[in-house]
Write a structure and sequence with these properties.
Layout (H helix, E strand, L loop, with lengths): L2 H8 L3 E7 L5 H8 L3 E8 L2 H13 L6 E5 L12 E8 L1 H10 L7 E8 L3 H10 L2 E11 L2 E12 L8 H6 L1 H11 L12 H9 L6 H21 L3 H15 L3
Parallel strand pairs: 1-2, 1-4, 2-3, 4-5
Antiparallel strand pairs: 5-7, 6-7
Helix pairs in contact: 1-2, 4-5, 7-9, 8-9, 9-10
Length: about 250
């Protein structure tokens, strides 16, 4: 499953999708053709992507159910009760900035879907600060690269339940889903070698469904990146130690 297919699969039926930073209107065209949403509002901070999206919408014969707004994030957007928000293809820090600037509008959304291209931990930090509720974290693997999609609820969670450093870096729902998955597998000798090898073995384990294998690919990619940085940063060394402790406790 590629990134845009996964994003489309995460969008629930709704009256209107607000798509911030649309990928050439690929997702809006798909959900409108499938009847998932009745209308789409596409926004972008640059005129070029808006015009590309408008042209593709016109070619698809969907102009009557699409609107376009040239704006930064949610600045000139007025959400209505039950709308779904999609922000994809931006860095985690950029999505975090959009959410923090438009925080007073978030309660009107039925669902919030984010696909950060980089620095997903910064987006999780913002979601945590804003006390939004994580519903799930899913992964698409495209050309061996994992792409993360976060699904959130705009309802306010327990402000006292803050994410741990491990959850901020690797994802609370990623860790939760992987833990549930690993607990049902039989003993595999190869998993006793080391954490990285175990992640590699499990990410190719055919008894797991594709989504759980994709989550393990994401964890492996994260683990390798942090390992490369750990010799220079004490924070990364602490993260690796915490991850090793968590992972090994599952067996």
């Amino acid at each position: 499953m590629d990134r845009l297919t996964l994003i489309t699969a995460c969008i629930p039926p709704c009256r209107r999708l607000i798509d911030v930073g649309s990928d050439h209107a690929t997702v809006p065209i798909s959900i409108l053709n499938r009847g998932i949403c009745e209308q789409v509002l596409i926004t972008d901070v640059h005129r070029g992507p808006i015009e590309v999206a408008r042209r593709r919408i016109e070619e698809a014969g969907l102009s009557d159910v699409c609107r376009f707004v040239l704006t930064d994030g949610l600045d000139d957007v007025a959400p209505e009760e039950g709308d779904v928000l999609l922000i994809s293809g931006l860095g985690g820090e950029n999505i975090a900035g959009i959410l923090e600037r438009g925080y007073h509008k978030l309660s009107r959304f039925y669902r919030l879907i984010f696909q950060p291209q980089t620095r997903d931990y910064l987006l999780r930090n913002a979601i945590d600060r804003l006390s939004l509720t994580f519903l799930d974290e899913r992964v698409a693997v495209e050309n061996r690269r994992p792409y993360l999609v976060m699904i959130c609820d705009s309802s306010i969670g327990d402000p006292g339940m803050q994410l741990s450093p491990l959850q901020r870096e690797f994802g609370p729902k990623i860790l939760e889903r992987v833990e549930e998955t690993i607990q049902v597998i039989p003993h595999i000798p190869e998993l006793n070698v080391n954490v990285r090898t175990a992640l590699e073995v499990l990410s190719a384990f055919e008894l797991f469904d594709l989504q759980n294998r994709a989550r393990l690919v994401y964890l492996l990619s994260k683990y390798e990146k942090i390992t490369r940085r750990a010799r220079f940063h004490l924070r990364d060394q602490a993260l690796l130690n915490a991850f090793d402790e968590w992972f090994l406790s599952l067996f």
